[in-house]
Amino acid sequence: MNTIINMKTGDLAWLPSQTALLSFADPDDSRSDVREWCYPKEPKHVLILKDLDETYYLIEYRGQQWAVPKRLLYRS
After folding, report:
1. With pLDDT > 90 as the criterion, what percentage of the chain qualifies?
2. pLDDT for residue 76
3. Which of the 8 DSSP states describes residue 46?
4. Deepest of 6, 8, 34, 41, by most Cβ within 10 A of its Cβ?
5. The whole model's pTM is what?
6. Residue of 52, 70, 75, 76 whose CA lies nearest to 4
7. Residues whose CB is less than 8 angstroms from the CB of residue 48 and which lie 6 or more positions away in sequence, other chains included
């Protein structure tokens, strides 16, 4: 089990393949509806854009911003 490691804006993280990436209707509110989602087919290094809330980080993936559960990211 991966424990949540605190990361900050500008950190690189390791995103495992098949991790659910979410785009919320209100990008700053993870309680809003999910507008879009994707599952990367390959693991990737991603940039942490910000700490969204206690559950999610906002990351950059393929030129878009996505929310990803903190527990599923690893320090790069």
Report:
1. 80
2. 81
3. E
4. 34
5. 0.87
6. 70
7. 7, 8, 9, 10, 11, 12, 13, 57, 58, 59, 73
Question: How far is Cα 3 from Cα 35, in angstroms, rounded to an integer?
Answer: 28
Non-local CB neighbours of 62 within 8 Å, separated by 6+ positions: none
Calculate mean pLDDT across residues 4-25. Answer: 92
Mean pLDDT, the chain, whole residue set: 91
- Cα 41 to Cα 11: distance, rounded to the nearest angstrom: 22
Residue type, 16: P
29 has pLDDT over 60: yes
For 33, the 3-state DSSP assignment is coil
